[in-house]
Amino acid sequence: MDNRSIRKLEAELWESADLLRAGSKLTSNQYCMPVLGLIFLRYAYSRFKLVEAEILSNRPSRGGRVLPVEASDFAAKSALFLPKEAQYDYLVNLPANIAAAGLANKDGQPMNSLGEVVNNAMALVEEQSEQLAGVLPKDYTIFSDELLSELLRIFNNKTLDAVGGDVIGRIYEYFLNKFAKNIASDDGVFFTPQVPGQDDREHPGAKGRRPAGPGLWLWRHVCPDR
């Protein structure tokens, strides 16, 4: 994919996501980390499918059936394993009425909204990596089911399956920079969310400062093909 096509994809994804925010009562600050979390999950799912295909291509069979992949198979390839309930395709294809679907979270508690299901997905992903413990956003219940369903659909763009982590990384950082500008405009302070283990810091009027915090930390430290 050439630079022009990447810029077009970045702009289209951002415009779609920002239009949804504009139609809600959410601020850019509330919207930012959950959206970045979805982009990360979308990247993780694309990589999961690539590694899964590689594993299955050399998988032994038993009784005529190929043995299912396991978390240890992914660990051996330094890749992140995603339980079914944390896979993007699973989330996109959930029924509209979550409360009637009889879903339970990882602790066995019933889930009654799409926000709870996505929170559970993030918690399941965190369990797969010590690096991710306590890092992923888990405040998706501030979104209505309709808004969150549309956001999931926006990032269910098949083009993202055809590009590598570098391109999705560019999209991720594009969103991070756009959020930084929006939050600076809304609140008068530059967006510098808390890095794990550091104190909160604000940088009023810090023009040109590169966005930092868990958003960029998450991408740079957990995405191995960047």
How would you describe the overall organization of this protein?
The chain has 226 residues and is mostly helical. Helix content is 53%, strand content 2%. The chain has helices at residues 3-22, 28-57, 71-75, 88-92, 114-126, 145-154, 159-162, 165-187, 214-222, and strands spanning 61-62, 65-66. α1 runs antiparallel to α6 (145-154), α1 (3-22) packs across α8 (165-187) and α2 (28-57) packs antiparallel against α8 (165-187). The longest helix has 30 residues, at 28-57. The radius of gyration is 18 Å and the shape is globular.
Write the layout of secondary structure elements.
Layout: H1 3-22, H2 28-57, E1 61-62, E2 65-66, H3 71-75, H4 88-92, H5 114-126, H6 145-154, H7 159-162, H8 165-187, H9 214-222
Helix pairs in contact: 1-6, 1-8, 2-8
Number of strands: 2
Radius of gyration, in angstroms, nearest whole number: 18 Å
Tell me the number of structural domains: 1
What best-fitting shape do the alpha-carbon axes yield? Answer: globular
Listing every helix as H and every strand as E from the N terminus to the C terminus, the arrangement reads HHEEHHHHHHH
**Helix fraction?**
40-55%
CATH topology: Ferritin
Overall pLDDT, averaged? 82
Unreliable sequence segments: 188-214
Taken as a percent bin, the fraction of beta residues is under 5%
Strand order of the largest sheet: 1-2
CATH architecture: Up-down Bundle
